[in-house]
């Protein structure tokens, strides 16, 4: 399924949009930029190009308002990456990814950088930070080098760091179009013109440990080994349309049902991979059963899950008291507050 064109690299694509020489903008050094985390209601699962992180299907997410990553870049004597107040070892996996991303933009220009990044996502929520992390890093790069790239280009470049980061450049509902170009410059995200102030997201923590199989390896395994994956692009396309209808009509039942079925369909393709890929823990299944019981007694409550054991609840503001009876320790987010 991977139809990568080996001659097109991240660097060759980015080079076409950068000035001949990039220069750090010293007067902007102290600003920190913010990008929100996001949760997909129609998931991105499967790459058609591993180098550029081009997806096999379009996806749609909701950004998590004030929860996300704040990042700044300044000139330094040596490259260094700070995460939540701690300087990372230069061989650290995260630090290497960050510096590799900066390298795409400084293109041999002779300066070193200090990257300071803070996640305010509650660690207890077990949310991935790569989406907000690469989106904030892209915004910080744009500011540090005074590039003033349009947001659609920033979305394309953030996508090269982490696919879901393409959606974290914006607030609210965001759609990432899969695109068809080989260089991926039409595989970009843009916000939907819609606010839904009553919408709530609840974070149910099951486990905060690092997952055994990261999403890149998980996607590749699924695409390569699961026959069931063949139906995934069709499911995703239908769900995307249903989500548009739900959002336009403010039909919460349609939104919740679609998001939950989309997420479970994605997990079905993982389970059907070889070796099997099951991110669920017993507590994930227990939470699902609680959600289905809550629905059976009239509480409009749905869920979605990413490549991990944690559950994200979807409900409307007027159901919050009911939902809390089932999930007393819930962290609740108002994406449009
Ligand atoms: O952006 P990545 O490579 O971490 O992949 C994200 C994959 C999912 O979270 C499972 C789905 C999505 O669309 O965010």
Number of distinct helices: 9
Question: What's the mean pLDDT score?
Answer: 93
> What small-molecule ligands were found?
(3R)-3-hydroxy-3-methyl-5-(phosphonooxy)pentanoic acid
Share of residues in helices: 25-40%
Radius of gyration: 20 Å
Report on the biggest sheet: 7 strands, mixed
What is the end-to-end distance?
40 Å
Give the low-confidence spans. none
What series of H and E elements makes up the topology?
HEEEEEEHEHHEEEHHHHEEHE
What is the structural class? alpha+beta
The strand count comes to 13
Quaternary organization: single chain
Beta-strand share of residues = 15-25%
Shape: globular
Explained architecture:
The chain has helices at 10-15, 93-106, 130-144, 151-161, 215-225, 232-249, 252-271, 282-296, 320-326, and strands at 33-42, 47-49, 54-55, 59-76, 80-83, 86-87, 112-119, 173-176, 189-191, 199-204, 302-304, 311-316, 331-333. The termini are far apart. Strands 1, 4, 5, 6, 7, 8 and 9 form a seven-stranded mixed sheet that branches. A four-stranded antiparallel sheet has the order 11-12-10-13. Strand 5 and strand 6 form a beta hairpin. Helix 3 packs across helix 4 and helix 6 (232-249) runs antiparallel to helix 7. The longest helix is centred in the last third of the chain and has 20 residues, at 252-271. The model has no long low-confidence stretch (mean pLDDT 93). It is built from nine helices and 13 strands. The structure holds (3R)-3-hydroxy-3-methyl-5-(phosphonooxy)pentanoic acid. (3R)-3-hydroxy-3-methyl-5-(phosphonooxy)pentanoic acid binds at residues 40, 43-44, 59, 128, 130-131, 162-164, 215-216, 306-307.
